[in-house]
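User: I'm putting together notes for a lab meeting next week and I want to include a structural view of one of the chains we've been expressing. I don't have a solved structure, so I'd like a prediction I can at least talk through. The sequence is below, exactly as it appears in our construct file.
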Amino acid sequence: MRRRSVLLGAAALAGCAQTPLPQIALPSLGQRRPIVIAHRGASGERPEHTIAAYRLAIAQGADVIEPDLVLSKDGVFVCRHENEISGTTDVAARAEFADRRTVKRIDGVEVSGWFTEDFTLAELKTLRCKERLPDLRPGSAYFDGQETIPTFDEVLRLALEGGVGVCPELKHPRHFQSVGLDMSVEFMDRVGAWRRERAGPRIFAQCFEIAPLRRLAELGSFANVESVQLIAAGGGPADEPARRYADMVANDGLRAIAQYADAIGVEKSLIIPRDAQGRSLPTTNLVGRAHFVDLKVYVWTFRAENYFLPLERRRGDPEAPDYLRTRGDLEGEIAQFADLGVDGVFTDHTAPAIAALR
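Assistant: Thanks for the context. Below is the predicted structure for the 358-residue chain, given as structure tokens.
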């Protein structure tokens, strides 16, 4: 995979003028279908970031599985959506860990709970995983307590066995660095070890921060790791607070990203916004502009429940008590984005995504 050899410093990024790019739209006819990235595994049907969720996603046909990576106290990557784990494990019910509850400031926000960096891997392995959204996903909550927290190495082995790629997200690297845990170095070491020992699986690296992706871009040995700059609809990267994501999807922002990354991973509303009632608005031209500067476009997150869908794709009786967890037209939403030429979709529901793109 081609890597960018010229990196822009923070000052250059901050000072980019907003010069125009051609306003192009790429036709979907004849394009390869977008890859299906199983977001935290088949997390619409099993508790997220469990081996069971990853296995189900692979069985349903995912091209790539996505673990979020945080670090244990002894520096081992484990798969959790956040380093605060009370919402996805039974740690709050474990009397032996009651004194580990604390308050920390993560990316400028005070968070109360239990944090992976305060537990060794052996201690984390004693915990049991649970569904994060039990009211919306009672079927997934049925599997609470059946799985332990997987390590990154376990997920890599599973991907190798299943013949799929792995798209890890580095979570809160700046915070982990502040407590003496260098996430970028650990990631380089683990992936480097895998590359030396075996071919595959296809590996991505994604992050909402900028510095970790720049560091990866500087390593020639990572020529076969695709880096993805994650971009939300609001806010900005925690490691460069002067920058806003809105600037990063402007023309010169995209050019700057193309110096160190292969793709952008963007929130759905940056491509198809919604009005105050939740109905879809006209499409933006972000996909075409990103493609023009040789950036792939991956989109997050596609979920089947009405709660997450635009108003026109919701199904059922709005007065029904189960309306928000009723499944709507996810297939139609994914097909709409595919027609816009996106290169991949992150989804909690692998099987409907595969059906929509077949």
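A couple of points you could mention at the meeting. Residues 183-197 form the longest helix (15 residues). The radius of gyration is 20 Å.

User: Perfect, that's what I needed.
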